[in-house]
Please model this.
Amino acid sequence: KDELRVPQSMPPVRQVLLSRGYAVAKNIHKEEDKIVVEGDLRVFIVYLSPDKNAPLQYMSETLPFGEIINDAGCTEDSPIFVTANLERLGVDTQEENPDLLEVSAVIRICSLCFGEKETYLVEDLYDRQHECELTWLPMQTCRRRQLEGQKKVVRMGITVPDSAPEVARVLYSCAMPEILSVTPGRDRAAVEGVMRYLLCYTTADAGIKSLQASVPFATDLSLPGVSENSDVHVEAFAEYAVVEGSGRELEARCCMEICAYETVCAS
Model:
């Protein structure tokens, strides 16, 4: 739980219309029998203001969070893998102070502590009546390795279909990236996906319309230590999305916060 102050350059809040966000684990500190997780909660808010000229307002803010997880098997040398997912988000107004918002979030944190050791096995086989043969079966082990997080800006065009009215001015835009393929290379990975936009805009006759658009995108990630044979998984979140223009051809710019993981296997 935390309080979020509306910037002085924006009008106060009369009613919260929409709130969404995402959580990312940033820093992982290992101590004896403990895992300390620090991360960011990114919150996006659309609200109704008392300003008659601009009643619909949009703001975003980053709130830090932290958690200490007790793990008896964790040592300072143990490889750690942590994920954070936003399960529930609530943003409420304060009647006595319209410039303050109360943010309540439930974040699910999953931590995995890995350990490896080599085991030697010696067996004596002897039977007077039967011929004995000793066979070995390899045991496969896997763990996940957290790669360095990064931000990427992608630019693309959005075409308003003929079935929708033309855009006079974009009031609000949000984006949700979906990763379709990840092709790892030497110290890098090529990512392809689809950006799903949701737009709220005014028309020439002063009406308000919404539009959904899916636009493909591609970008490259710098991932030191990754090779062509690596098993890489990528998750992407839209930190912000800006859509500009009018008519039927719009220009979109989206900044993605990307989390990448690698599955490391051994026998």
